[in-house]
Specification:
The strands form two sheets. Strands 3-2-1-4-5-6-11 form a seven-stranded parallel sheet, sandwiched between helices. A four-stranded mixed sheet has the order 8-7-9-10. The chain has two domains: 270 residues, Rossmann fold, CATH 3.40.50.720; 102 residues, Dihydrodipicolinate Reductase, domain 2, CATH 3.30.360. It is globular, with a radius of gyration of 21 Å. By secondary structure, the chain is α/β, with parallel strands linked by helices. The chain has 13 helices and eleven strands. This is Myo-inositol-1-phosphate synthase. Belongs to the myo-inositol 1-phosphate synthase family. One of its GO terms (molecular function) is inositol-3-phosphate synthase activity. It comes from Tamaricihabitans halophyticus.
Length: 390
Amino acid sequence: MAKATGLWLVGARGSVATTAITGLLALRANLVEPVGCVTARPELAHELFPGWTELVVGGHDIAHQPLAKRAEQLADAGVLPHRIVPAIADDLRAVSAEIRHGYHPAEAHEPAAAAIDRMAADIARFQHSHDLEQVVVVNVSSTEAPFPELPEHDDLAALDAALRDPARTVLPPSSVAAYAAVRAGCAYVEFTPSLGIRVPALRALAERSGLPYAGADGKTGETLLRTALAPMFTERALRVRSWAGTNLLGGGDGATLADAEQVRGKLASKGRGLAALLGEEVTAPLHIDNVPELGEQKTAWDHVSVEGFLGTQLTLQFTWNGYDSALAAPLILDLTRLVTAARRAGERGALGALGFFFKDPLGSTEHRLAEQARELADWIGGLHAEGAQG
């Protein structure tokens, strides 16, 4: 019988992480069904997936609010059912005790190299104390501003030397977390549009270390619809002339993405996917606006202008409204199970077949949802435990 797997969340006290943790604990207690969990579909079941009771959670965060308190706030906001939080309160406190202090350069009192050592040691202790087979690190922290690719990012020795300089910010927090994950011998998932493991030296180190990784930028709402709808136009030889979108966000995401620098990475990730889907650049203005009164809700409105036969015009408009944390949380659990299975099967490097879950997939140029779903199913069907084949 395989040992349990660790799920180590970067940003472990945020809305997405708290929703994922609460959902996992509720699944363990048979309080809910796994609605929204792709890996719970019977046709995708696999013996290499860890069960809900085989996932142990810890994490890093620079916030200090107890998980139980954050879960209560999310229940008041409509994200979580009120009946669940009291039923798993003890388990939430146990997970909260496994969260260690993270890293952010604005509050750091140590060079990044020391933070990487400290965070890697936190993960290693967590794995040892729970006798875990492996740990999957998933970044669900706040979106960062785009970070310039400096020359030393290509050379690990030069990067290490630069990280020891306390006066320099050589890597953003997401990449510090990714480096700590790889240093601790863990697979890594970049669920945000932040730089994370996309630093060339870190990707190379992960591959040399036999570690799989996946990302980037979880596909949960508007982009999910785009990847389903855009192929319809191209398959019917219709010409999309423009595709405008407006996103209205509340909560922490809205506040974070109100910053002009931090929103650039998110907009770039969304834009790359649309151009790939349509096969050409189109007029595609996209706005993300902070609307605090929406709280944890997100609303997206899209207007699509299409040219049809003989120049006739077709217009499509759609609105998407939901709780983004509840859309993202089951994907966190899915990705943990899938990456665990990938490592058990001996896979390393970018897991392109997991592009189904991402706006800007690493290891794949495919953005069409139906094709991604087929690739994912085929990949799952081909997984075998390492050493099982002669």
